[in-house]
Amino acid sequence: MVHLSSLLLKNYHGGYVVIRLALAGHKQANRPFYRIVAAYNKRARDGKYIEQLGTYDPLPNIYNEKLVSFNFDRIKYWIGCGAHPTKPISKLLGLAGFFPLHPMTITEAERQRAQTEPIAAGPGDDLQQGQKEAEP
Amino acid sequence: MFQVIGGRGVQVTRLLAPGRAVLVEAVRGRKSRTDTVAKSKQGRIKVPPPVDPTEMVVLKERYAEYEMITRALRLEFKEEVLRKKYEEETGSMAEEHRALMVFNDQENLRMLQQRVVRIQMEKEEAENKQVEAAIERELQQQEFIKEKEREILKLQEDAKNFITLENLDQRIEEALDSPKNYNFAVDKEGRVVKQTMLQ
Predict the structure, then answer these.
(1) Do B50 and A100 touch (CB under 8 A)?
(2) Where, if anywhere, are coiled coils annotated (chain B) (predicted)?
(3) pTM > 0.90: yes or no
(4) CA-closest candidate to residue B47, choices B14, B29, B24
(5) CB contact under 8 A, B78 and A82
(6) Fewer CB within 10 A of the terminal residue: chain B, N end or C end?
(7) Regarding predicted confidence, which is higher, B23 or B67?
(8) 3-class SS at A105?
(9) Vertex A13, ends A9 and A15: CA angle to 5°?
(10) Poorest-pLDDT segment among A32-36, A51-55, A115-119, B54-58
């Protein structure tokens, strides 16, 4: 389907372009599939977008892979035009190597490792957990 | 949600010191001011998520680095977009453009050389003028001094003919002895006649 969005773009006062995930295909329940999309900030999440820049499938396939695709050329163009990527997009791009690794990715991995270590090493690493819970 | 944490932004790095555990403000969610609080939420005190200070420091550093890198990337992409647009416009005239730029550079060089020579000449002229002005001033000063000396000498000579207390009587006698006649007559044609009838 040919999108004429480039010719019919509405002018938003104070609006800006974002690169974000938009849910595609509401026809199936419990089977999400995201499109990586450049859209205006004010638009609905699944509404009219300016350009599609890739896909993201959150459910792993039979080989236990989550497939992501990016159109790096166009992403570069949109970021050069001043688009803001959202947090999940930044994380995905960081994992892909296009952006630097997002700090929260590293932090989440460290936290998970800290949580799984006590289970592996026995009930001796309760200090870290206790420290985290003691800080309200 | 909360009025403190409003809008987009890095919400994680906002709370470093988890000092306050109690939030003062209530939240206006689905219910209005007059709706009763639900039974299960009667004594609930909302508390921000717990924060580990060491982790927070590390996170802040990581975020600073990350933001620096993303900012640099964004500027790079911006530059690339602008360059592509520029090249699109001047793609057909690239050779002309280059030739014109070379010509411009040559012209600039030539003008620079001319300017340098001109400035040198002007500087030398200014220096010469200054030297001449200094000489002029010296001469003026010398003239002035000489003038003053001449006046002094003249005054000294005139001083010999002054009337003093000792000369007073003598001079009065002299003046009375020699009467001077200031009368004269003038004709319509302008002929002056000093000789008159002395009394």
Answers:
(1) no
(2) 109-165
(3) no
(4) B24
(5) yes
(6) C
(7) B67
(8) helix
(9) 70
(10) A115-119
B63 touching A, CB under 8 A?
A: yes
pLDDT the model gives residue A105:
95
Pick left, alpha or beta for residue A82 (phi over 0 → left; psi -120 to 50 → alpha; otherwise beta).
Answer: left
ipTM of the complex: 0.78
What is d(CA B114, CA B106) in angstroms, rounded to the nearest whole number? 12
- Cross-chain CB nearest to A103 (options B21, B50, B63): B63
Q: What is the pLDDT of residues A31-67, one digit of tens each?
A: 999 999 999 999 999 999 999 999 999 999 999 999 9
Domain spans, chain A: 17-117
Q: Which residues of B touch A107 (CB under 8 A)?
A: 55, 58-59, 62
Superfamily (CATH) of domain A17-117: Ribosomal protein S16 (3.30.1320.10)
Q: By the 8 A CB rule, do A45 and A37 touch?
A: no
The token pair at B19 is 């000092």
